[in-house]
Write a structure and sequence with these properties.
- This protein has two domains: about 40 residues, no CATH class; about 110 residues, Jelly Rolls (Sandwich).
- Helices cover about 15% and strands about 40% of the residues.
- The strands form two sheets. A six-stranded antiparallel beta sheet has the order 1-2-3-10-5-8, with helices on one face.
Length: about 150
């Protein structure tokens, strides 16, 4: 429960740029205004073939905001690409690698990362286990916003 609240607070900070407080006791009446069906978000399951197949669970509400959970096997990599949207995320398990023209960074469980839009980057599983992470795209992913390259 604490990890989930931390993830929600992280996403709110990423999306709004401000820190919010959470009241675990909360206002039950305000929360109950929406029906159970309206509170539940069922993701679209996407299978994406890069060098190996990975799975994305798409929880995105609209074109302005993308929210996905990615599951990538050992050895997965995207090509070098420029991405026309900001990506913020948090690693749930495994190790994420981000290779830029001048540096390579790795991120482990419970660490967050940020890739500014129009940055040339190669995103990959840098660990020896399956990679699970949550990503937030602003605006949401569109193929027209992604350009692939052979190298840096």
């Amino acid at each position: 429960m604490v990890r989930l609240l931390s993830l929600i607070c992280f996403l709110l900070v990423c999306l709004t740029g401000c820190v919010v407080g959470s009241d675990i006791g909360g206002d039950d009446e305000a929360i109950s205004l929406a029906s159970s069906a309206e509170k539940r978000v069922v993701p679209e399951v996407l299978k994406i073939q890069d060098n190996v197949e990975r799975t994305m669970l798409n929880y995105s509400p609209n074109d302005e905001l993308g929210i996905v959970k990615m599951v990538a096997p050992i050895g997965w990599t995207e090509p070098v690409r420029s991405i026309g949207f900001d990506i913020r995320g948090i690693i749930i398990s495994g190790t994420l690698g981000l290779e830029f023209d001048d540096e390579t960074l790795t991120f482990d469980a419970d660490e967050g990362f940020f890739i500014p839009k129009n940055t040339k980057v190669r995103i990959y599983n840098a660990g020896d286990q399956e990679l699970h992470m949550v990503e937030v795209f602003t605006p949401n992913y569109k193929p027209s916003l992604v350009t692939d390259f052979d190298d840096f």
